[in-house]
Design a protein that fits this description.
Helix content is 33%, strand content 22%. The chain is α/β, with parallel strands linked by helices.
Length: 374
C-alpha cells in the first residue's frame, strides 16, 4: 500500500502562515473530515519535553498546536492537549512553552496525567505490555504533533519517537533498562503500532540540530509536513535533512521488520518536492559509537574509548538533581553537593542530558572515537 506525505513550506511562525500551511498539509492527505466524525474527542499530542521557552525550539511551537486545534474544532472534533514531560508537570511545561496561552485563546483544555492503564500487546510483539496514561485511551483519535529535533540516543526525534511521551513521567526512564540500547528502537516501533495516531503533523519551521533533544541549536528549516503514517513521515524527513536512514534506529528497525512506510519509493510526496525543501549542513548529535562488532569482553574493556558518554559541566550545574532523579541505571550520585557519574553503571541512554534545564550535561567522545572522527 502506498503512503502519502505532504510537504509545505512555511517561513516563520506568523499565525496566518502557519494555519495556511497546516491546513494545506492536511487537505493534501484528504482533509480532517476524512478522519474526524462530529463530536469525537481528539488528543493533540505535542512534544512537551521540558519547561523551555519557545525560542529554544525544544517543544512544539504553540502556533502549530493552535492551528491544528482550530482546524479540529472546525471539523466538529473536541480537541484536548496532553503530553507527559520528562521533567515537570504538563501544566508547568505548557505554560512555560506558550501552549497554555493559545489553549486559553481557543478554549481547549490542557490536561494533567490521569490514572495509568496497562495496554497489552499482541503476541508477536517483543514487549508484552505498556503502562500509558489514560488520557491516551480516552481519545477517539490522536493527532501526533512532534518537533523536528536531534536526539543523542536515537539520532532524531520525529513522529515515531514523539509517541514515547504517552508513557508518564519517570516511567520513561525504566524503559531504558527494560529495552536497553539494543531493543529501544523496537520498543518505540511497537508503542507506535499500539497507540496508532490517526494523523502526524511535524513542526519543522524551526527545528533543532546538534545535541538535542533538550539543549541543541535551533535550526530554521521552514517546513510543515504531515502523514497518516508516522514511519513514512520520518522516512521523508530524513531525506529532507540529507541523512542516511540507516543511522536512525527506528527506521532501521522498520526496514528489518518490513513495516509499511520505510521504503521511499512507496511514498507519494504531495505539495513541494523533496529536493525543493532539502536542508543543507544539518548537524547531528555527538552520539556516534564505533564498535565494529567487537566481542563483548573487549567492548567492556574499551567501552569508554569507543563510545561517547555524558559528563557534567559543574560550572553550569545548579544542582537541581534532575539528572539524579531520572537516571535509570542509578549511575549518578550527589557527593559534596556535586553530581558524579559512575561510568561503570552508566548505560549511555543520555536521559540526564535530555532533562538538564541548564544544559550542563555535555557529550564527551572516547579517545579512539576522537581520533576516528577526525
Amino acid at each position: 500500500m502506498r503512503q502519502l506525505v505532504s510537504l509545505i513550506r512555511c517561513p516563520d511562525y506568523d499565525y496566518k502562515s502557519v494555519k495556511r500551511a497546516v491546513r494545506d498539509s492536511i487537505e493534501l492527505l484528504g482533509g480532517l473530515n476524512s478522519i474526524i466524525q462530529g463530536g469525537e474527542k481528539v488528543l493533540l499530542k505535542p512534544n512537551l519535553l521540558s519547561p523551555k521557552t519557545v525560542e529554544k525550539a525544544v517543544t512544539t511551537h504553540p502556533m502549530v498546536v493552535k492551528a491544528i486545534g482550530e482546524l479540529v474544532k472546525e471539523a466538529g472534533g473536541k480537541p484536548y492537549i496532553w503530553d507527559s514531560p520528562s521533567i515537570g508537570s504538563t501544566t508547568w511545561v505548557a505554560k512555560k512553552s506558550g501552549i497554555s496561552q493559545i489553549a486559553d485563546e481557543i478554549n481547549i483544555p490542557v490536561l494533567e496525567d490521569k490514572e495509568i492503564v496497562t495496554l497489552n500487546a499482541p503476541k508477536d510483539f517483543i514487549f508484552t505490555s505498556f503502562e500509558i496514561a489514560k488520557n491516551v485511551l480516552d481519545a477517539d483519535l490522536i493527532i501526533n504533533i512532534p518537533k523536528l529535533k536531534t536526539h543523542s540516543m536515537m539520532t532524531l526525534t520525529l513522529a515515531v519517537k514523539n509517541l514515547f511521551g504517552v508513557i508518564p513521567g519517570f516511567r520513561k526512564a525504566r524503559w531504558h533498562l527494560i529495552a536497553g540500547n539494543k531493543f529501544f528502537a523496537r520498543m518505540l516501533i511497537e508503542l507506535y503500532l499500539l497507540v496508532k495516531p490517526k494523523l502526524n503533523i511535524i513542526d519543522g519551521i524551526v527545528g533543532m540540530e546538534g545535541n538535542g533533544p533538550g539543549n541543541g541549536i535551533p535550526k530554521k528549516i521552514g517546513l510543515i509536513a504531515a502523514s497518516f503514517n508516522a514511519l513514512a513521515l520520518d522516512r521523508v524527513l530524513v531525506e529532507v535533512l540529507n541523512l542516511d536512514p540507516e543511522i536512525v534506529p527506528t527506521l532501521k528497525e522498520a526496514k528489518r521488520s518490513d513495516l509499511e512506510g520505510w521504503e521511499l519509493n512507496k511514498i507519494d510526496i504531495m505539495g513541494y518536492p523533496i529536493d525543493s525543501v532539502k536542508t543543507k549542513r544539518f548537524k547531528l548529535p555527538e552520539h556516534m559509537d564505533v564498535q565494529w562488532g567487537l566481542p563483548r569482553p573487549i567492548k567492556r574493556v574499551l567501552k569508554d574509548t569507543v563510545t561517547v558518554r555524558p559528563y557534567i559541566d559543574l560550572k553550569l550545574c545548579k544542582l537541581c538533581k534532575s539528572c539524579y532523579d531520572i537516571c535509570p541505571g542509578n549511575a549518578i550520585s550527589i557527593i559534596d553537593d556535586k553530581p558524579i557519574i559512575d561510568y561503570n553503571e552508566c548505560i549511555r541512554c543520555f536521559c540526564c542530558q535530555e532533562v538538564c534545564p541548564e544544559g550542563a550535561v555535555k557529550i564527551k567522545k572516547g579517545l579512539f572515537l576522537k581520533i576516528f572522527s577526525h
